[in-house]
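User: Hey, my collaborator sent me this sequence without any context and asked if I could get a structure. I don't really work with proteins. Can you help?
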Amino acid sequence: MLLIALLGAAPCLAGEHKEQPKPQPQKAAQHPAKPPAQQAHAGQWLRQNRNLTPAQQQKALENDPQFRKLPPQQQERLRQRLQHFNQRPPEEQQKILDRMDTWGHLTPEQKQQARQMHAQWQQLSPERKQAVQNAVRTLRAMPPEARQRQIDSPAYQKQFTPQERQILSGASKLPLAPDEDYPGPEE
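Assistant: No problem. I've predicted the 3D structure and written it out in structure-token form, which is a compact way to encode the shape of the chain:
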């Protein structure tokens, strides 16, 4: 499950790295959190191990039975993603954790729908991505019954292409974290 979470958080980890002063990690617990395989979803593992030093997190990852079963290339990607997570400011880390929690609670069908919407969104120009992203945020602030009416409104029909309205419609129906950088996570 940690693997899905770190992979699912990858798009938000791929942004520019901003050097920020890092808070001092708390002293490590005597017993680190249970391995990801024994938990409901991966965000919990990272959240519970968040206050460990990066070296202690790395050790916990290396000792995880799921991690050990992965091919070396995938293990290295996960190590890098954990390192990138630890380099983020606490506010960004919290957003990533919230997104991971949301992703962990989606059904397989919802995850597939989110992946498809994300793939469509990735094909848009940067300007259109921003317009769709802004609209998704606006729609999420509305009551669910008003969202589709807004998407079908003459204003949205004029502002967005049918493909973009399809992305908006799908995103507005998924219970994704409200502060997404895109309409759906990827794995």
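In plain terms: Residues 47 and 97 are 7 Å apart (CA to CA). You can pass these tokens on to your collaborator as they are.
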